[in-house]
Amino acid sequence: MKIAQLQLPVFEEKEKNLDQLEAEIQRICKDSTEGKPDLITAGEMFTCPYETGKFPEYAEPAGGPTWKRLSGMAAEYGVYLSPGTIPEVDEEGKVYNTAFVFDREGRQIARHRKMHLFDIQVEGGQSFRESDTLSAGNEVTVFDTEFGRAGICVCFDFRFPELARLMVLQGARFILVPAAFNQTTGPAHWDVMFRSRAIDNQCWTIGTSPSLNPEASYHAWGHSLVVSPWGDIISEMDEVPESRVLDLDITETERVREQLPLLSARREDVYTLNMKLQME
Q: Which domains does the chain have, with CATH numbers?
């Protein structure tokens, strides 16, 4: 599977962010010497500055103008598109940090609403409260491609190993994580978290972030990366805008699981991990 990771800056203007995304997709699909990717992914809140007060202001419903434009991009270029996340508002007015995934025909094949809201107070570091304006989702999200089943979650979600394991138990061979770690948590935990989830679950982990904007109120860490099922970092950017196209052998998931049978050796007679019925 050939993937493209787009580590893009985020502007105040929603349409400017969408124009930038489409221009980069066009460049990669039509003009790049690296070949057309099968899947394209971008970072968390790619249409909206990462500020709690702006999430309701930028929010749109599923099926709204931004959703339609993203669906159209996937169909026009014939790719799976996981364009990071946008603020989504539901019929009751609740706002979510939502990752949509579209197939090659532009059909929505996944919607993940961030389950674990980023409410932190790091001593001497970052303070942030997503729950001031966002609601939490409650679904474990997987979707099917011709390369096998994938999982998707959003940033802070990936800190919780139970969620990654539930996606893998439902058949995920690779996990997409649109994210925006900051300058405090990024240096401390970004690489080790993605390597840990990859090793524990013997799957590809793909973390994609916006680039750093020093003038913004929230300073993203960047460092979009890809980690193999063996735990090797195959690719990692720095903090500046960049796009990379990578070839991944998704079958490495099965090879690693056969050589080191962690999943099949679990003691389900002693412990289990159960998923409650998902609610709408």
A: 2-259 (3.60.110.10)
